[in-house]
Specification:
CATH architecture of the largest domain: Alpha-Beta Barrel
Radius of gyration: 20 Å
Strand content: 15-25%
Distance between the termini: 33 Å
Number of domains: 2
Low-confidence stretches: none
CATH class of the largest domain: Alpha Beta
Strand order of the largest sheet: 4-14-13-12-11-10-6-5
Order of helices and strands: EEEEHEHHHEHEEEHEHEHEHEHEHEEHHH
Largest sheet: 8 strands, parallel
Helix content: 25-40%
Structural class: alpha/beta
Number of strands: 16
Number of helices: 14
Length: about 375
């Protein structure tokens, strides 16, 4: 059942792994959860109804890309992003902070004005301030809104990371003021600080004083090793509020997710299952399959005989290999839907193992396989 306002309830802990429930006006989100990425108002090559059939309960879209194309007014005109893309699920929107890093050659940073972009499409100038980012996200009717932050590239230069973290904190304050009183929506702060534990803690404590509906961990999955990422999580998650959802942005592989859940994280997003589907890679409980490999030319078995979505269990590895070789779009459709379904199966089994106090057994069984 949906709720009249956003809320989070921690239901159970198994060591540091957490089972929870996010309630929104658009529906319930069971945590730990994985959010398929629909950057440009679509999860590439997947129909919304198929996405729902995988057990996906929330998707992610992106403020910067929607601001560029199709433009905020076009989405606002039809009542928001849900109507525009025919999606009844809750939607979380990234603020554009990641693009400040990923499109850094096209961006100038100004503390007062925010990020000044030259569009990667046509060079047109866009200014994305903390206030403008929040306004856009509210205009397109996002359910979970992210503060604008600066997500620095991976670096061991502590001065650079410190300056970036302090700027993100100032922008978080401005984002909160712009957000105002919106009980049907949620605003998440973003913890920055690179790989430096003391900067992460300083960032978190400042955000806790501002007070947000949830807390994201940003600035990871940007080039650090998995061991470095886990070390950051070890140093910060136990200090995060227990009664608020914890979101690790842009992560990741199945083993990344298992390791982060083990350290108390509730929410994840990543392009990996969809991008991998477009490049011939399938995630399975026995490990990853590169279906471009010639060895699959004579393999007449399905990727997963139990996956009946869109009759995916009727397509052989040999046939999918042929589709990839001939550059047929159907290959991307089959593999993307398969991968998203695998990720949602993973999250379901994680939730069941936490509920049954068997998460560590599940972790030990699959961490080195998937």
């Amino acid at each position: 059942m949906s709720s009249e306002k956003f809320s989070f309830k921690l239901l159970k802990e198994n060591a540091d792994a957490r089972l929870g429930k996010i309630s929104t006006p658009r529906g319930i989100i069971d945590t730990p959860t994985f959010m398929p990425v629909g950057t440009q108002a679509t999860v590439k090559s997947v129909f919304i109804e198929d996405l729902v059939s995988t057990g996906s309960q929330i998707i992610l879209s992106n403020t910067y890309h929607l601001m560029i194309r199709p433009g905020v007014e076009r989405i606002k005109r039809v009542g928001g992003l849900h109507n525009f893309m025919n999606c009844k699920l809750p939607i979380l929107t990234d603020s554009g902070g990641f693009q400040i890093m990923s499109l850094s050659k096209l961006v100038q940073i100004n503390e007062l004005e925010g990020a000044i972009f030259n569009s990667h499409i046509d060079g047109k100038k866009f200014v994305l301030s903390p206030e403008q980012s929040i306004k856009i996200q509210k205009d397109i009717n996002s359910d979970i809104i992210m503060v604008l932050d600066e997500c620095p590239k991976m670096t061991t230069d502590k001065k650079i990371v410190n300056n970036s973290m302090k700027l993100s904190t100032k922008w978080a304050e401005r984002s909160k003021l712009e957000f105002g009183d919106s009980p049907k929506k949620a605003l998440f702060g973003i913890v920055q600080g690179g790989i430096f534990d003391d900067l992460r803690i300083e960032s978190l404590e400042s955000l806790k004083e501002i007070c947000f509906d949830g807390y994201a961990i940003g600035g990871l999955a940007v080039g650090e090793t998995q061991a470095q990422m886990f070390k950051v999580l070890d140093g910060i998650t136990k200090l995060m509020p227990k009664n608020k959802p914890r979101y690790l942005m842009g992560v990741g592989t199945p083993s990344d997710i298992l390791g982060a859940v083990k350290r108390g994280v509730d929410m994840f997003d990543c392009v990996l299952p969809t991008r991998s589907g477009r490049t011939g890679l399938a995630f399975t409980w026995e490990g990853r399959l590169n279906l471009k490999n010639a060895k699959y030319q004579k393999d007449d078995t399905p990727i997963n005989k139990n996956n009946k979505l869109r009759s995916l269990n009727m397509y052989s590895k040999s046939y999918i290999n042929h589709l990839i070789t001939t550059n047929e779009i159907l290959a991307s459709m089959i593999l993307t839907l398969h991968n998203i379904n695998f990720y949602q199966e993973l999250m379901l089994k994680i939730r069941e193992s936490i509920k049954n106090d068997t998460f560590n057994d599940f972790y030990n069984k699959y961490y080195n396989i998937i």
